[in-house]
Task: structure prediction
Amino acid sequence: MKILVTGASGFVGRIAVEALLTAGHSVRAAVRAPQPGLPVETVVVGGLDPATDWSVALDGVQAVVHLAARVHVMRDHLGSADEFRRTNTEGTLQIARAAAKSGARRFVFVSSIKVNGEATNDCPFRADDDPHVIDAYGRSKLEAEIGLSQIAGLEPVIIRPPLVHGPGAKGNLARLCRLAQSGLPVPFDGISNRRDIVGVANLANLIERCLWHPAAPRQVFLVSDGQPLSTAQLFRLIAAAIGRPARVFNVPVELMRVIARPIGMSEELDRLTQSLEVDITKTREMLGWSPPVSTATGIEEMARAFVSGAK
Result:
């Protein structure tokens, strides 16, 4: 197929483009500004908003992979509900309507597990759970999902990934890589959470399958590596990948919360200590899909890329 990919120059986008090319598809990248180095045809569309003209980018295209978004960043106080909605909801629906009009029926939308919620207790999130959004970012993604389902002539496919790991990952994953490289002791041994993550190659592989599988349209799929980890287990995998000892010690989580609260680190601590499990049974059974890359392999690639980039 001829596929338009938005966000093609990003962390997930570059791997998704590679996966699509490997599978034999023809790819066009829609970019905000000229992006030298992309291995595909590019079309500059400017910002992702309700006024974006998609006519040139969609010419001759049969399907769309929509990755571009205003992302959720911890401690980013510049964002607002209106800004998230303008980009993630209205901008998404603008390209989706244009795609349906141009004849590009299949529309794979990478949403977020934040539509399901922020944390799990004893029951993993499932694809068909009622949404439980907490913040403006999650709400903007949910509103986009709802809007996509109402566009005539479109075959939307929704993918909700949890934390994505791989070469170039930022945020808490980059912080964990930095800590492992430093060799400093960390208070992770008392954290007994279970958190699902997904390797960027596994996510890209699922995106490609959703483009052609007959059962995919108008479905919501959760995705993960299929192996939930505690923060301590994740840290040990990173340390082993870069040949460093994992020096972990035990500090009660409640004590860490008391320390984190007055210094404004509660959200970061929640991500390190809470559980977030996802049930990918629907994805496996309906699409015949399994993650092709193991968690250990993906984490090793991420950690080694971090070390190489830090030199």
